[in-house]
Each structure stands twice: as structure tokens, then as C-alpha cells.
Amino acid sequence: MSREVKLIETITAHLPTRSDTIVGAGDDCAVIDNGPDHSLLLKTDAIVEGVHFQIEDPADKVGHKALARALSDIAAMAGEPNSALITLGLPKDFDQQWVETFYKGLNATAQTFDVAIVGGETVRSPGSIFCSVALTGKVARNKAVLRKNARVRDALFVTGELGGSIDGKHLDFTPRIKEAQWLSEHFDLHAMIDLSDGIAGDLNHICNASGVGAEVWADYLPLSRAARLRAKQGDAAKPAVAAAMTDGEDFELLFSIDPGDAVKLKDQWREVFPETAISCIGKIMEQPGIRLKDEQGIRPLTSHGYDHFQ
User: Fold this and answer.
1) How far is CA 252 from CA 6, 42, 192, 273, 290, in A?
2) What is the three-class DSSP state of 208?
3) What pLDDT, on a 0 to 100 scale, did the predictor assign at position 6?
4) To 5 degrees, how large is the angle CA 16–CA 38–CA 272?
5) Are the beta carbons of 291 and 217 closer than 8 angstroms?
6) Other Cβ atoms within 10 Å of 223 Cβ, number
7) Distance CA 168, CA 117 (A)
8) Quick one: pLDDT at residue 1?
9) CA-based diameter of the chain, in Å?
10) pLDDT in tens, the chain (310 residues)
11) What one-character-per-residue DSSP string does 132-153 give?
């Protein structure tokens, strides 16, 4: 267990809830009872200079990322985003133009996904720039897709391509809001998560929450061009499969469905989302743990996804 996961488990073990808390800490969003028709989704996410972005990165893309990360979590619940609060921490000698360009990117993403920016906070940071986004959303009652309902023999699917996001995708990805809503409308999604920490970390969250294991097929992983190119950059380069499993910040959807729906899903997906790949990359197993199947056979996966405290 990584330090980050252990810390989260420790501090969330005894959090107070209320009678209207349907899902508390431990999934992509909290789910709150909001009447007979819809549930309220709550999400907060943060980016920090030097961790999630560099000051040399285009400020508008940093602004996009700040909001898009939270939008990706709304997508993982098959929800619809609504309103956001923005907390921005800046050093004393901040660059006014950088901030204005940051908000230009953030506002453009909000308009694209019909999100209202309804307020927030600006504070002085003693060091790096940081931004925290609190986002609300909604989902039809009892329709939020959780991590905990994966079933043995389920087919595992992933959207898009994986690995090498540091070469640009981590600043320029599209949250899969439309794709998730379409999937939820047309298929019985058993479990879903967005890939922020890599398959090795995020699939483990599904498995732990559902009390199952998984087998991942290396030959079927949709490896990005960036991951393949980085794998050729010398002895210290990470193999493309390892990048797909552990790099993180792909912000694609990883989900499980009944294997009997797999062919139907592939056929319909090609018609609705022809520019976005979808791949069956493995299956849910009864035996705990994640196993990787490749040309060397089937073996336990020992690597973990991204950990903030490694």
C-alpha cells in the first residue's frame, strides 16, 4: 500500500456523515441526497506549481487543467457538472498577466462544459502557486456509477490512449463527460473511475472497493504515441506498457461491464465516438490483486500508480 493511500485511509476512517450522505469519502465524488429525482455530486481537486504544472507552461492550459481534473471526476460518476468555486493561492510578487491568462483558460473550459464559476477565494501563498477547485454536479437518483460494484468476469474497458501524458496531454485533455453519460444511458456500468494515477493505482481502487481482483492484458493496452516515443529514449526510459500502467494523468475512463455487452459496446461506440478509441484491456477476477498478462505469462503486478508522497 502506498503512503498516499495509507494516509487517505487513515484520515477518512472516522469522518462524520449525515443522513443525506449517500456516498462519502472513497469514490471519485461524494453523492448527497437531493430529492426524489437527482443526487448532488461534490468534488474538490487541487493543482500545485512544481507538482501538476510548471510556471513555464502556458497559463491558459494550466487554467484548463485546474477545472478539467474535477470535471473528469464528475464524468467518472456519469454525472453532469454544475457550479464551481475557485481558490487561488499566489506569491506576493505574482504576475498579473499570468493570472488573467490562467482565468481565460479556466473560463473557456467552464463555458465548454456549461459550468458556472460562482465565486471562490484568493489568498497569498508563501511559495508556489496553487489552485483548488470545488465543483458540484448532479446525477439521476441511484444512477451514480461507483467504484464498488465490479463483478467477477466483468470485461474491463478504457477510453482513449494511455501513457506519456507529461508530454502535453496532462495540460490538454478532454474530460469524458459526454462519453460517460452516453455509456450510462446505453449500458449497465458496474464500476468506473477516471485514470488520474495510472491503471496500476486506479484499477486497484476499483478492486479494493469491490472485493475482487483483475487481469490486465498488456497486448491490448492502447499505448499513446508519446509513451512509445519515450520508451525509445535510452536505457533509463520507461517501457510503454509500464508508462500506461503507472504514469497517471491520462484522465480517461476505466470501467467494467458484463462481458456479454462487450461486442455491442464496441460496435456502437465506433458510430457515436469515432475519434476516440475504446479498448477491452482485461477482466475482473475473483482472486484479489492485479495480474499482468504479457508474452512472459501471467504475473502479479508489483508497480503502483502515481503517489504524491514517494
Assistant:
1) 24, 20, 10, 14, 19
2) helix
3) 80
4) 120
5) no
6) 18
7) 26
8) 60
9) 59
10) 667 778 878 888 888 989 999 999 989 999 999 999 999 999 999 999 999 999 999 999 999 999 999 999 999 999 999 999 999 999 999 999 999 999 999 999 999 999 999 999 999 999 999 999 999 999 999 999 999 999 999 999 999 999 999 999 999 999 999 999 999 999 999 999 999 999 999 999 999 999 999 999 999 999 999 999 988 886 557 899 999 999 999 999 999 999 999 999 999 999 999 999 999 999 999 999 999 999 889 999 887 655 544 5
11) EEEEEEEEETT----STT--TT
pTM equals 0.94
- Which DSSP string corresponds to 251-300? --EEEEE-GGGHHHHHHHHHHH-TTS-EEEEEEEESSSEEEEEETTEEEE
Q: Which of 41, 45, 42 shows the shortest CA–CA distance to 133?
A: 45
The CA distance from 286 to 151, in Å, is 8
DSSP symbols for 17-71: --TTEEE-BTBSSEEEE-SSSEEEEEEEEEEEBTTTB-TTS-HHHHHHHHHHHHH
How is residue 127 written as a grid cell? Answer: 511559495
Q: Which helix (H) or strand (E) holds 104?
A: helix 96-112
User: In a 10 Å sphere around its CB, with 0-12 CB exposed, 13-18 middle and 19+ buried, how is residue 269 labelled?
Assistant: buried
Q: Side by side, which strands form the sheet with 116-124?
A: 21-23, 30-33, 38-48, 130-140, 80-90, 116-124
Give the C-alpha separation, 6 to 304, whole Å: 13
Q: Walk me through the domains of the chain, giving residue ranges and CATH numbers.
A: 3-140 (3.30.1330.10), 155-300 (3.90.650.10)
User: What is the reported pLDDT for 309?
Assistant: 41
Centroid of chain to Cα 199: 10
Residue 123: half-sphere exposure toward Cβ, Cα within 13 Å: 12
Say whether 191 sits in a helix, a strand or coil: strand
